[in-house]
Design goal:
Two copies of one chain form a homodimer. Helix content of chain A is about 50%, strand content about 25%. The first copy, chain A, is α+β, with helices and mostly antiparallel strands. Chain A binds a DNA duplex through helix 9.
DNA sequence: CGTCTATTTGAATGTACTCAAAAGCGGTGG
DNA sequence: CCACCGCTTTTGAGTACATTCAAATAGACG
């Protein structure tokens, strides 16, 4: 599992010298997970933030009556964790599972904190990562408030075509906030795809 | 308009020496705005991020057929802007108005960029601000996906009691993603407040 | 005081859900 | 390799939640 992708991800926003790169890499724990395996379970302590090197992960919230709400999908080159519980080291609200066999790098909270101290440039890096995540979530809220289920679905397909190929309709429905049955009828009406 | 509140806001996450404080303050532009005045209009370039010193602001998205969706409210001690358009210096998607007479400090994008260079600790500060904003938006998405309109309303009241006192029901409804008529019947059913 | 907007109320409608059952698809073991 | 099992997807009928439209009332502001 090579480190080119994650280093390129970092290099998008900050430049590191050789020592800094080595130190950063020394903190990462590569991991291969198979389809359906659970990386984080609701209630567990959320110890790491994950960078997806290959594959697809899904984070969801389990509401009343076993109703799942998909909070995010992550494909290659994405960071994913239960941010609230990661930052505050609280029991997770979210469950994170592998949608397909995946490879990731995990970074522990305490190691990230060390990284911030030793290489403050990473404050900048994660400032930008958080900023983008915030903007993305806000855009999603705007869409949820202002668009119909059908429009949200077609937007999802065009914005995340790779994700759409990997995950089930049921999972997409739970991301959009509608039932799988209703998504099915939407597709039938529009003859989408 | 004194600077204690904003300095305390900063001090929650980083500590500055005298020079750094002075430099930071030199970049701020205090501004008093009266009720209903428009700080940012959809389509305009979004040049600043705003810190609310006193009062209440509201950011909303204008969808089809004059339907407003409230994206966020900001009361004293909050930062608010159209983040996407601020960061990318694009025409605003959001409109930001004063719900009541308010006092704020504005910080221009180019000055924030200078601040990052001169006082890198601010990378940390805004990393934390962005992180919190991301977490908050994600929580809102979870609620939108998993709770009923009534539950979201009661949560809103308990989470943002100050905001709830300042804004109209119509504005709250547009934040929750329901019509004002429906919010009115919810309140009647529950005899809430 | 008069005007404008917000809020309430109610009736009719539509969007999305629940429940149920059938069909499709993928994975697994005999 | 096929048969079966479990889960996903489809389809449909009936229902509930939330909207639209309309009109009356209440509040805020000049």
């Amino acid at each position: 599992m090579n480190t080119e992708l994650i280093l390129a991800n970092i290099a998008k926003h900050i430049s590191l010298d050789k020592n800094e790169i080595d130190f950063f890499l020394s903190l990462l724990k590569p991991e291969e997970v198979s389809k359906k395996s659970v990386l984080l379970k609701e209630g567990q302590l959320c110890r790491d933030i994950n960078f997806v090197h290959h594959g697809t992960l899904r984070a969801f919230y389990m509401g009343k009556e076993a109703k799942e709400s998909t909070i995010m999908f992550a494909v290659a080159d994405w960071w994913i964790t239960d941010m609230y519980c990661f930052i505050n080291q609280k029991p997770a609200m979210l469950t994170i599972t592998a949608v397909e066999d995946s490879q990731l790098f995990r970074l522990r909270k305490e190691d990230l904190d060390r990284l911030y101290l030793q290489v403050p440039k990473f404050e900048r890096f994660f400032r930008i990562i958080m900023q983008n995540a915030y903007i993305r979530e806000q855009l999603r809220i705007i869409e949820n408030l202002s668009l119909s289920a059908e429009e949200r679905y077609t937007n999802f397909l065009s914005r995340y075509p790779k994700v759409a190929q990997q995950v089930t309709q049921k999972q997409i429905a739970s991301y959009l906030g509608i039932t799988p049955e209703f998504l099915s009828t939407l597709r039938a009406n529009k003859r989408i795809k």
